[in-house]
Automatic annotation (TrEMBL):
The keyword Zinc-finger does not apply. It comes from the Bacteria. Its main location: membrane. The lineage of its organism: Bacteria, Candidatus Lloydiibacteriota. This is Multidrug ABC transporter substrate-binding protein. Residues 21-246 form the MacB-like periplasmic core domain. Pfam families: FtsX (PF02687), MacB_PCD (PF12704). The chain crosses the membrane at residues 21-41, 282-310, 339-363, 375-399. PANTHER family: ABC TRANSPORTER PERMEASE YTRF (PTHR30572:SF4), MEMBRANE COMPONENT OF TRANSPORTER-RELATED (PTHR30572).
């Protein structure tokens, strides 16, 4: 039998049993749509996270206390809750004397409850110096940034994030010069940050309180060391060269002779992007693998229904074989039916998945515009869907097709 004839026979058979064909395709449709939706969400989340990190600046270098983490996915010791006191004021002073560095911004961090009137919110707070705003290229929407005089005088002043300003104050009330309480201490608000988003350590910049470094160290935390030092490289120097100079200066300060004895870790934007890219890619593949389980279920459903179809059409098979159809002709017809079902189901699944992804994007961009969620529709998800649906049609269609082809024509014609 010519392939064209087998194809026409298969399509007529599918059209004859419309409801059965629709129900057979349903599992594939759901599976393909799930793969596309989850991979799209994973890709969008990856793009959002990486764009946030890129926003901190390619000339930004972060010095973290503790030995360099071993392995690509290991967090530094300080990020695991281990208190390390190796970064001190003398380190920041030494780095300021390095000509390849524009700004040096030591940081300390903590968690506390911030209160204004009857409103309160649990927030992260940061103690910084005046160079922090230069290093991080941050500005204020209202008010002013911290100055060297604020730091040296130990004034209890604060700059708050955009989201926190909306939480604590009504639209009619300006936060500037209002007094808030942080960890039961009074602070006068002198500024509101001009943008939110995530900082280098995942800190929500929209829901943060920034206070003078001296106040945070002595009055809020009672410490004399830094949680990290943010360095802005001079644009005239290569970032990797600046990184090597930072390592040289700190080794001199800490009396370290070889790199394997380092008690600090230096991260550039490239390092952070590489780490986050690896992690988010694995998470995206993990989501796709979970969604692919539904494709497996859909394929098994096709095999079961095709087996039922073979049983129901036993007399038809016997009649065709009686007039000259070979085992290969019968196998070819049923295999074409199976592949057509999965391909059509795959195409519908892609359309459904794309529609749902588009709807999610519209909802998020309309009602949650501050998230900055970007539409991502990875072509790899479409190709994966088509590939898996085709393979499912072949893999789960072969057994029923072989069962049909092996039927004895005499027994098939006698079948009731």
């Amino acid at each position: 039998m010519l392939f064209r004839d087998a194809f026409k026979t298969a399509t007529r058979s599918l059209a004859h049993g419309k409801m059965r064909s629709v129900l057979t395709m349903l599992g594939i449709v759901i599976g393909i749509a799930s793969v596309i939706i989850l991979m799209s969400i994973g890709q969008s989340a990856q793009n959002l996270i990486l764009s946030e990190v890129e926003g901190i600046g390619s000339d930004l270098i972060i010095v973290i206390p503790g030995a360099p983490a071993s392995g690509n996915f290991s967090a530094p010791a300080s990020a695991q809750g281990i208190i390390i006191t190796s970064l001190k004021e003398r380190d920041a002073d030494a780095l300021r004397r390095e000509p390849s560095i524009v700004a040096v911004a030591p940081e300390v961090r903590g968690q506390a409850e911030v209160v204004y009137g009857n409103n309160d919110e649990s927030v992260s707070y940061q103690g910084v110096n005046a160079d922090f705003f230069v290093a991080r290229t941050l500005g204020v929407k209202e008010g002013r940034v911290l100055t060297k005089s604020d730091i040296d005088s130990g004034l209890r002043v604060a700059i708050i994030g955009l989201d926190l300003a909306q939480t604590l104050f009504s639209e009619r009330v300006t936060p500037i010069d209002k007094t808030i309480r942080l960890n039961n201490m009074s602070f006068r608000v002198i500024g509101v940050l001009d943008k939110g988003g995530s900082g280098p350590f995942g800190v929500d910049q929209g829901n943060i309180v920034i206070v003078p470094l001296s106040v945070a160290q002595k009055q809020l935390l009672g410490i004399n060391y830094y949680n990290d030092i943010v360095v802005k490289a001079n644009s005239e120097y290569d970032v990797n060269f600046v990184k090597s100079r930072i390592a040289f200066v700190l080794r001199q300060n800490h009396g370290i002779m070889t790199a394997d004895k380092d008690d600090f870790d230096i991260r550039t934007q490239e390092d952070i992007l590489s780490l986050l890219g690896n992690i988010t890619s694995i998470l995206t593949l993990f989501l796709a693998a979970i969604a692919s389980i539904s494709l497996l279920v859909g394929g098994i459903g096709i095999m079961n229904i095709m087996l039922v179809a073979v049983t129901e059409r036993t007399r038809e098979i016997g009649l065709r074989k009686a007039v000259g159809a070979t085992d290969t002709d019968i196998l070819e017809q049923f295999l074409i039916e199976s592949i057509l079902l999965t391909l059509i189901g795959g195409a519908i699944g892609i359309a459904v998945g794309a529609g749902i992804v588009g709807l999610i994007y519209v909802v998020l961009s309309t009602f949650y515009a501050s998230l900055g969620w970007a539409f991502a529709f990875p072509i790899s998800a479409v190709l994966l869907g088509l590939l898996v649906s085709t393979l499912s049609g072949v893999a789960f269609g072969i057994y029923p097709a072989r069962q049909a082809g092996k039927k004895n024509p005499i027994d098939a014609l006698r079948y009731e």
